[in-house]
Amino acid sequence: MENNTTSEEHLIPYKTFIWVWVTLIFLTFTTVGASTYFPGTIGIAVAIIVTPIKAFLVLEIFMHLRYESKVFRYMFISAILIMAVFMGLTLVDYIYR
């Protein structure tokens, strides 16, 4: 029996990994600094803006989602959206209690 599966290796230069790492460190310091110096609404807003950016970088570069097929990407995005809907419904329930 012959195995016809192919595996593609995606070579990402170390320079890209280093830049992403530096960016993630910078964004982490930004989030911590904003929550330290602006503990109210501004700190939360900065965290809400920065966190998806960091997640996108990790998913695209470190988890190689950039090189996956479109079906896999759509499945991943739909899972995130479904989770967001359930979290939103839970938040609405919490607000009106």
What can you see in these coordinates?
With 97 residues, the protein is mostly helical. The chain folds into two domains: 12-63; 69-97. The chain is 74% helix and 0% strand. The protein contains three helices and no strands. The N and C termini lie far apart (61 Å).
| Major sheet attributes | none
The fraction of residues assigned to DSSP E strands is under 5%
Structural class: mainly alpha
Assembly form of the protein: single chain
Write the layout of secondary structure elements.
Layout (H helix, E strand, L loop, with lengths): L13 H24 L3 H22 L7 H26 L2
Helix pairs in contact: 1-2
Summarize, please.
The protein contains three helices and no strands.
Keywords, separated by commas or semicolons:
2 domains, mainly alpha, 3 helices
